[in-house]
Write a structure and sequence with these properties.
Blueprint lengths: L3 H19 L11 H16 L5 H21 L5 H14 L2 E7 L2 E7 L7 H19 L5 E6 L8 E6 L9
Antiparallel strand pairs: 1-2, 2-4, 3-4
Helix pairs in contact: 1-2, 1-3, 3-5, 4-5
Amino acid sequence: MVSNLYARVELQLLMNLTAKAIQQPAERIWTLSSADALRAYATYTNRHLQGGASRQLLQRMNSEAYLMGCRLRRLFFVCSNKAAQRLVVKLYRHIGINMQFTADDELCFHSCYFSRFYTPAVCRAASALDDGIIRGITGLAAGQLHFSQRITEGCSCCKAVIKKEPNKNINI
């Protein structure tokens, strides 16, 4: 079992990269309980993305998240696609998201803590972070995560596919 401290540090790193991307001060959440830290991050992202996200902001969020994903890939010595998938699943579990890869390029998010806080528009904007982190960990420099359904839009789960063709614009 992972320590609560590890999960809170992981969440603080996510807070820091999000704050940097949206050019707002980060909140210190690693000292909170795991549940309070998760709630604080959800509230923070919801508050800052509620008004919408420009293409420039989505690109910045995606770029910061991609760099974080690449750092995590190196930190955990990820050398195969299966190892990358296992790392993604474990990291997401720590932040209240139960997901799995149903194929090398297909994902199913069975439940998501953030769906209680996010509107569909906030969820779409926050997905720029998912795209970057997942591509960074899996070593996919070009491509994009495309969602076909979302919990925040009334579906029972989120489904996404990683399209491997290069795409210059974030269109999640």
